[in-house]
Amino acid sequence: MESMENTQAQNVDQLTAKERAKIKRAAEILKNAPAKRHKPNDSKAQKENGSKSDDGETNFGGSFSDEQIRTLLEKKSNHDKEAKRAELDQQNIYFDRCQIEEQIETNATSLMELKNCKVVTCSICAYTSRHQSVYCKTSGHEVKRHFADKRFFKCKKCQQRTFCYDRMPTKACISCGAKEFCRVAMKDERKVLTERERLKLKEEEKNFSSLKA
């Protein structure tokens, strides 16, 4: 008997502070849990047994068996695993979305035109667009509905981007008025700025802020 008590004492001493806190929390949960309803026929048997647990320890006064404590700790461990699994699923969804966005951006930087776009052309207003303008509709102009390729361009003078459904833009640049354009992709490649370029950009922003103030 003495050896068993010594062994139990050693096991208690070996518990870490974290495990003791878990056991204490488990004891509080069991202590505050609502009492179970027993059948009238079982009350006599419980009185005779003295409300003892399987290993002989009573449940009165907040005394719990090792099996009950271990069960509570296992439940908490299972909940932690489920929470971590849910967090991992969310991370996978986020990274999958980032990968898709990166793939779209990569394709856009190499795409020079969009083929077979539905467009309308008005010979009176001299334009080709995806939709007929309000003025064109109210004026009753007859438009031609057809398919055309959407091409992307950049002004050689000011680098202003534009697009058209013809082989080359027929109108001047809306930014500087120049009429020379070059073919470009749907989207510019993301440029990694050097340290010198970052400092120059910050200096320009600072000068602009001082002028604005």
UniProtKB/TrEMBL annotation:
Residues 1-210 form the Replication factor Mcm10 C-terminal domain. Residues 16-28, 40-55 have a biased composition (Basic and acidic residues). Residues 1-64 are annotated as: Disordered. InterPro entries: Mcm10, Rep_factor_Mcm10_C, Znf_Mcm10_C. Residues 1-14 have a biased composition (Polar residues). It comes from the Eukaryota. PANTHER family: PROTEIN MCM10 HOMOLOG. This is Replication factor Mcm10 C-terminal domain-containing protein. The lineage of its organism: Eukaryota, Metazoa, Ecdysozoa, Nematoda, Chromadorea.
